[in-house]
Structures are given as structure tokens and as C-alpha cells.
Amino acid sequence: MAIEVRIPTILRTYTDGEKAVNGEGATLGDLLADLETRHKGIEERIVDGGQLRRFVNVYLNDEDVRFLDGISTALKDGDSVTILPAVAGGSK
């Protein structure tokens, strides 16, 4: 089962600069654990206490996983997962 994971610039230090990597897993949690085996440190930047970090958005085929099953969202071969850090701020 191959799932493409798009990596934001800020996390590319964990993927040797790669914009996208492949992973495997029946759920998003499994996929992130699989990525951790090849890209040490990446999982803890996305997950905290078994849940997605508050300021990290994850999309499955362009749909926010928070509106699906979160870290338990089921995945299938050919899916695309995009990880995006939340952006906040602005001018006064």
C-alpha cells in the first residue's frame, strides 16, 4: 500500500529535503508511525499524546482529517496526505 505524504518546508529537515515521501498504514496514525521508522523525529512534530498537534493540519485527499476520524482516519492505497502547519498572525 503506497500513500504519498506531502511534507511542508518546515518539516523537510526530517525527510532530507524531500517535498513528498511514501508511506504505508491502514490509518493516519499507522502512516505516521511508518514515516517515523525512516524519518526519525517527524512523528513527534505532528502528534502529541496520541492526537494531532493543535497547530498542525492534516488533509486526506484535500479533506481535513479533523472532520473525518482524526488520527484514526482510514487510508487506502493511492491516497494522498498533506501536512500543513497552521498559520496565524497578521498586522495590527
Automatic annotation (TrEMBL):
| InterPro entries referenced in this protein's UniProt entry, alphabetically | Beta-grasp_dom_sf, Mopterin_synth/thiamin_S_b, Sulfur_Carrier/Prot_Modifier, ThiS/MoaD-like
**PANTHER family, A to Z:** SULFUR CARRIER PROTEIN CYSO (PTHR38031:SF1), SULFUR CARRIER PROTEIN SLR0821-RELATED (PTHR38031)
This one is known as Sulfur carrier protein CysO
Species of the source: Streptomyces lavendulae subsp. lavendulae
Q: Which gene encodes it?
A: cysO2
